[in-house]
Amino acid sequence: MSALTLLADPNTARVLLPEFTLVVGIVLMILVPNIGKGTFRLPIPNTNIRLPYLLGGERFALTSSPRVPGIIAVVTLLFSISLALWSQASTPLTDYNVWCITTSGEAYSSCLGMTESTLLRVDGFSRLLEVLFYGSLMLTGVATWSRLPATPRNLIHSQKLAGPHEDERIQQLLDNRRQVDFHLLLLMVALGMSVVALANDLFVLFVGLELASLAIYVLVSFMKEESTGPEAGMKYFIVGSVSSAIGLYGISLLYLWNGSLDISDLSASWAAMETIDPLALVGLAFVLVVIGFKVSAAPFHLAAPDAYSGASAPIAGMLATASKAMGFVVLLRVLVTITMPESGSAFWVGTVGIIAAVTMTWGNLGALSSDNPKRMLAYSSVAHAGYLLAAVAALGVNSSRAGDHDISQLLVAAILFHLAVLVLFKLGAFLVITMLETEGRGSRVEDFHGLAKREPLIALAMIVFMLSLAGVPPLSGFLSKMLLVSGVIDASVHHTMSFDDGLVAAARSLHWIFWLALLVFLNSALSLFYYLRVGWVMFFEEPPTKRRMVYAPFLRIAIMCCLLGTLAFGIGPLADHLITLVSNAATAFLQS
What's the Cα-to-Cα distance from 456 to each of 104, 369, 448, 484, 548, rounded to whole Å? Predict the structure, then answer.
């Protein structure tokens, strides 16, 4: 299947409009900054007739502006979000609005009865995740306008050139090229994540995962002026490439076992096994290694704190939100879609449960001892991965009880809701750190001293983000954790717990997964210590300077949008609307 084949079918072109918008944005990112006054001479003797060909030569003032790449990236992502929402406008994120794209490139409105393998599946689940990905990356792009200043005096160190005016012109051109590199990589991440969200074939999913990951490795080390950036990027690349190699080997074993990597076909073959084939089991285990790295689950999380602390704050925020959500999409596709039995508890429940308990506890203990805010939030992100893994383990437990589709839907919806609102308060916290980084600070908790006296509104936003991360009501972080814990408890006590023989007997009758819900609660209480430490130094310590922070209007607007979303999606009609959307998306996922 080629790009021309995709464009030949009008249904396919219409269904994939958000993805084609990203491709157009990537092409514009390459072409627009190179538009200039270039001309070529006609090969006619004794004449000097020159015709313009625009690409090359001295750049126009508009196309050489360092602001242009960022504007292209943000506008492209904004259009992609609008198109993704518009594609589901008639029946918002429901299982009725489903399109399947086969190996021939044709799109079908019904995925039933098709003879060809399905490569991409467009439904409410994939569209919701695309909106999540694009929104996170758009906020990252807006924050970078201040973190990577587009000015002639940018952080590019070149030797003295011929005169001040020439020096300024060359600096601006170099800055323009640097902005192009950054925002081009950002759009490549968006395209890779889109492929992951839509993929219905394990190899296509892996291609999208690696397309996004390779761009992320470069973005982590993009700030070459700081010694920690290249080191963090190299560590993240080495660990990530090793895990990807292991995952690719696992996919090859699954292909040897099944002869196809279509997720539906793999699911049918897995369900048909009376006993688990060792080849399939080893292949699955290898695939789970790369998933463990992407979601920062213990013990595969060791490179994450270094990557977060070495990357710029907007990129660290993207790792904690969009990249983590991408990892959980792969996890749900593999563990739930492929290996979930129709009856009987899934064989991987115990392993995932242990990893969830270790991950959330290890993450919170690591955050308690961290003085670097980005490193603290990195360990916090590890802890949140543990909370989500507890819900995945509960999904496996619930599969043993026929007729409990509502509980499975609740658990998947809770995971999606948590990933969606995490973009608001987790990325919002990194945006506040971005403001500090524009001053050359933000690597220590002491840099937050007296922030409330310098910037009261920014400090208020930061404390709201911290409280939401801890799960304090009535913020969106509380609602997301409540949904997770509620789903885990429902999966553990449904048709099991009975008080007829007393409280002790009832407690003994509980499934062990119940204690994961209790552990989520205890770890959330533990996390209050390091989240409130940031609030304490902001409001009760003296600032090192009375001077206000950098103006950065668009960055401030992004922070305020995250603040309003954190409050609005915690309680009220917007929270109810988002719950309805994630519930519809969960239904679409479970019926895929």
Answer: 57, 27, 12, 33, 10
Tokens 């922030």 locate to: 451
Structure pTM? 0.89
| The predicted structure's pLDDT at residue 359 | 93
Predicted pLDDT of residue 431? 93
453 burial type by CB count under 10 A (0-12 exposed, 13-18 middle, 19+ buried): middle
pLDDT of residue 64: 74
Give the count of alpha carbons within 13 A of 190, CB side only: 35
Whether 555 and 143 have beta carbons less than 8 Å apart is answered as yes
Residue closest to 518 by CA, chosen among 555, 481, 551: 481
Residues 356, 566: Cα–Cα separation, whole Å: 25
Tokens of 462: 């930061």
Looking at residue 149, its pLDDT comes to 62
| Burial annotation 191-224 (CB, 10 A radius, 16+ → b, else e) | bbbbbbbbbbbbbbbbebbbbbbbbbbebbbbbe
CA–CA distance, 75 with 135 (Å, rounded to integer): 11
Residue 8 CB partners (closer than 8 Å, separation 6+) = 105
Strand partners, 38: 54
Assign 396 to helix, strand or coil.
Answer: helix
Q: How far is CA 2 from CA 16, 193, 255, 343, 562, in A?
A: 14, 19, 23, 40, 39
Would you state the pLDDT for residue 166? Answer: 44
| Tokens at 213, concatenated | 């990951």
* Contact assessment for residue 238 and residue 316, using Cβ atoms and an 8 Å cutoff: no
pLDDT at 445: 86
Here the tokens at position 44 are 């006619």
Alpha helices, DSSP H, located in 32-67 = none
Distance CA 122, CA 98 (A): 6
| DSSP type of residue 35 | E
- pLDDT at 163 (0 to 100): 42
Are residues 465 and 488 in contact, defined by beta-carbon separation less than 8 angstroms? no
**b (16+ CB within 10 A) / e for 90-115:** eebbbbebbbbbbeebbbbeebeeee
Which residues is 36 bridged to in the sheet? 59
Which are the contacts of 187, defined by CB distance < 8 A and separation ≥ 6?
A: 22, 25, 26, 29, 73, 76, 77
Q: What is the DSSP string of 207-253?
A: HHHHHHHHHHHHHHT--TTSTHHHHHHHHHHHHHHHHHHHHHHHHHH
Q: Report how far residue 559's alpha carbon sits from residue 547's, in angstroms, rounded to the nearest whole number.
A: 20
pLDDT at 225: 65
Burial of 589 (0-12, 13-18, 19+ CB in 10 A): buried
Number of separate helices (H) and strands (E) present in the chain:
23, 5
Low-confidence residues in the chain, pLDDT < 50: 151-167, 401-403, 495
Helix (H/G/I), strand (E/B), else coil: 61: coil
For residue 276, what pLDDT is reported? 81
